[in-house]
Phosphoenolpyruvate synthase (Pukyongia salina), 972 residues
Amino acid sequence: MRRLPLLLLTLFIQQGICQHKSSSTTDFGNIRKMVDEFKTDPRGPYRDIRWFCTDGSIRMPKDPCPETIGPGVQHARYKETVESLGKTEHIYLGQILAYTEPNILWDGSANHSRLKQYQIGKYLASVDDGWVLRKGQFYRGAIQAEDEEAAGIKFYKWLLGKNEELTSNYFLIRQSMKDVPHSGDDNLAQAMRSQSKNISDGYTAFMDLRIKIHGQPAEADIKAVRSFREQHSNKASAGILKQIDVLINTMEEFYTPVKITSLLDGKKMLKGTPLGTSIERYIAQQSQETSPAELVSATASLLYEIRTGIVSENRPTARMYLLDISLKLEEIIFKRAPQWEPSTLKELLSKIYHLGMGTTGAGYIELWEWDQIKNTLNYNENKENITLGELIRVLNTARRQTEWSASMVKAIYGDEVNRYTEFEPLAYGFIDDRIRGSIALHLGKTVSELGDIVAQQSNITNSVLGIPEQSAVRGLNPGYAYGELVVVEGSADVVEVSSEKIYIFERPPSDLKPVAGIATVAEGNLVSHVQLLARNLGIPNAALSGDNLKSLKKYHGKMVFYAVTGNGNVLMKTEDDMTEAERSLFAKKVRKDDKIAVPIEKLVLSETSVLNMRDVDASDSGILCGPKAANLGQLKKMFPNNVVEGLVIPFGIFRDHMDQPMPGQNNTYWEFLNNMFSEAEAQRERNVPEAEVENFQLEKLAILREAIRKIKLKPEFVADIDSKFKTVLGRPMGELPVFLRSDTNMEDLKDFTGAGLNLTLFNVSDREKILNGIKDVWASPYTERSFKWRQKYLSNPENVFPSILVIPSVDVDYSGVLITKGISSGINNDLTVAFSRGAGGAVDGQSAESYLLRMDVTYELLAPAREASFNRLPVTGGTMKQTATFESRILSEKNMQQICELAEAIRDKIPKDTDTDYQGAYDVELGFKDDKLWLFQIRPFVENKKALSSDYLASISPVIDQSKKVSLSIKP
């Protein structure tokens, strides 16, 4: 495997351990059937109605609670199947707030799942005619609106009395107030989007208007919808026309200007407080007719001030009022931002800055994240010009904020949406609906306008199949490809990929097999396995927006040409539009001598003793063991206090075991393997199609893999490793949790990294699991994914030999990757770092906290972490899942200094201590425990020089004059 305990940790996170039952054990088909039944049931998910009295007693519906035992509330009880579903699967349908105590609704032990499910349920009801309450919404007495509102008020008074919850979960709390009744308000914006969707679903001619209302909503849409109704009055059904009338009414109500003078109505307790005074000042200044620019700017400032000052207001009810005002302010910006039409570049930059501030005030990014970028976005108003380099930096920073805002919604609601989508596909639209109802929607549109200006000034113009908003597309690493375009919306884990196709992923699978090219909605992080493999192998890779992905769906299945230049511009065109030069790139098959050979001449297979990691170093890589063990042994010599002790199971022990007779065969394991490769070559000589040859090999490898997993470990080897655990690691095997890291001779070749292709077992403590894990790691190079990557890029893929690195677990507070090069800047003296909380950070597509770090310890935030959970490593083995919040950064200034010092030492010591002339960058895995830095791996950072130097890519990549002056008075 490519990184510490990383792949399997990420898989555990994605599968939902431990808070919910794993998807693999949940019968979603049965839940889907249950939901369908509720939709047609007059009582929906409810069985009957009862009075619930203050003393805890329950009475029949015609027998209300007597005054002697206090008032009661009347509502439905859930069906037994619904209650059972909640207990066994933590899935709650048709939730009644009056039936739920505040601490139960908050559901802290399950990362607030019940509250999120309540919101998803409200969304589904709005887009699917009541959803599970399609008939049950008419079940009289089941839900009492006044009791639900009273329960909502009770909930927020309870929750908003907790400072820590308000600080760490500001976004979730504020978002929930759009759905949990507490002030009589309705979510008109969501209703408007839902109604337009329902109309277009039933009458496709409305689709263009639906796209406009969802993507670029404006008050002028009312006139457009009215005009549509007139034009289609004789074509659309009476039912559709009625739905259009309802939509027009909703739009008129939504676009009715918020009465600024009424913001403090009924909220006398805020008067005289610091925030109350600011609100009164805002009312006085903005209640008269003002320009959209002035109103949006002032509203964003107040929205931000409420966010920063709300914790200083200690009264829960006052906090509830402030959040209600905050929602009204966001509504004002959402309605008026489209009316702000900047007349100059200077004003466009001002709009981006204030929309960014408002987005922060609304909670879509954290306060510390805004502190990192606000100075870049807040240009000097006294300047008449801006350099193109500065403008590009503003654009990149503003793009990032838009991405961070969208990723916040996904991080907070993603787990619940994914689970609901398994039995109700409509739930998938919830996240998109939240983003489209946010200020970030208008921020993204305005940033795209800036992108168009930058494209004009720098000649970096994307050409991606003519889709809109192309300035949101940006290249990550260069390369070109030709193949079928596959657009994957939602989870990609079940997609069977092909090396002949180009994939557009919302989020790529963590175990990606070979592909021709990829693009993802944001990059996750620059040092994930997918990104490093793509960079290493010259696979074109780009980031794009969710809207870009949707626009590309109509090209799904088409043959396309795809190229990314070193400057980051992106080209994608259909097969028919390819030039002769582009066709010539694929006129010939890749020759065999273009592949990379695994060196085997120096292999020492006679070493059959378990080694102390201190006794190996970089000179043993590819000889006694793989580069992980060799390089970590080298690091142990160089940084003895920052590297754990370790054991190395060399190549020779694996090879020795492979000489044993293979069960069910007439030969040894090794003979079986070599016979398979010999037969494959014979088939090729007989012109058997390559696909058939590959299938033959995969079938044989599956047999071999299962046999290796059951191979008998030799007694002398078991006795040896038992002894080394005691003498080197200091504890008997079974009493110390360890990592078993696959470490093959095919990794870290000069032109092939092999990132993430083989297995690592993490935090294993049980003795038998360790011994069985050794066999599992030996078998992992023969998996389909690992073999396909080797087969595609190596000329002798049969000569793979696994060694194993065994190291004690370190339960780090946070971990990640350091690349001793600025990947985004291209500057060799810069550093790229990416960290996530807990063990196993910053790989496999995790949305990690990433920085461009300079050696003077100045830095630029590239992305904040957006992983909702992380793993700790208990001494008992396995993992313990914890929930993450994002209100504070991961890496401290002290950590930054430590990383810079480490990078300087690596650059100085590695060439000297290893007697090498390697001058390139290094890829380092590390973590921090109580601010102590621990090193886990170092390897050369491999880039594909062919892609970087491609004549074709150079021919379509413009030269950018970073010093060019751009007038701030030009028109957008």
Observations:
- Confidence is low (pLDDT under 50) at residues 1-23, 589-593, 751-756.
- DSSP finds 33 helices and 26 strands in the chain.
- The CA atoms of residues 737 and 875 lie 6 Å apart.
